[in-house]
Design brief:
With 153 residues, the protein is an alpha+beta fold. It has helices at 4-35, 67-88, 95-115, 133-150; strands at residues 41-45, 48-55, 118-123. The two termini are 17 Å apart.
Length: 153
């Protein structure tokens, strides 16, 4: 039997990470919307630009304009993630990618609810689609989750 305190602590850490991701994501998107006109480009580093674009799909523009499909995909993914976390919360650091994934998903869902689309603003070279901090958090969270899931106890 697992101690209830460790479950509460794992959820607390997860919630804190998710809250920080949502806060940073929403603040960065608001800053971009307030400072860059849609279609305008600002060079930050060689090959890295800030833009102000809207994405009506999921990460990197997948499933554009399919709000119901996107919502269902996000809901199913979060349910699977929460179920996995609930069964594996004692794994070291599992709360970190879980919080990153939940925070990233919530950050983008907030945009969809507020504006019907997600603000993307980081543009990399070689035709990579623009993304935002929520997308980056989701991507890094998935990689960390796989690494931690594959790690032997």
């Amino acid at each position: 039997m697992r101690p209830a305190g460790s479950l509460a602590r794992a959820w607390l850490y997860t919630a804190l990470v998710a809250a920080v991701v949502v806060l940073l994501d929403q603040l960065s998107k608001a800053a971009i919307r307030g400072s860059i006109t849609p279609g305008e480009t600002h060079s930050i580093l060689p090959g890295v630009q800030f833009v102000n674009t809207r994405n009506r799909g999921v990460a990197f523009g997948f499933l554009p304009g399919r709000h119901f499909a996107v919502s269902m995909l996000v809901a199913v993914a979060l349910l699977v993630l929460v179920a996995y976390f609930a069964r594996n919360y004692t794994r070291p650091l599992i709360w970190l990618p879980t919080g990153m994934l939940i925070g990233g998903a919530l950050g983008n869902v907030l945009d969809r609810i507020r504006a019907g689309s997600v603000t993307d603003f980081v543009k990399l070279p070689l035709g990579w689609p623009p993304f935002n901090l929520a997308d980056a958090s989701i991507t890094v969270g998935v990689l960390l989750l796989f690494l931690l899931a594959e790690r032997r106890e």
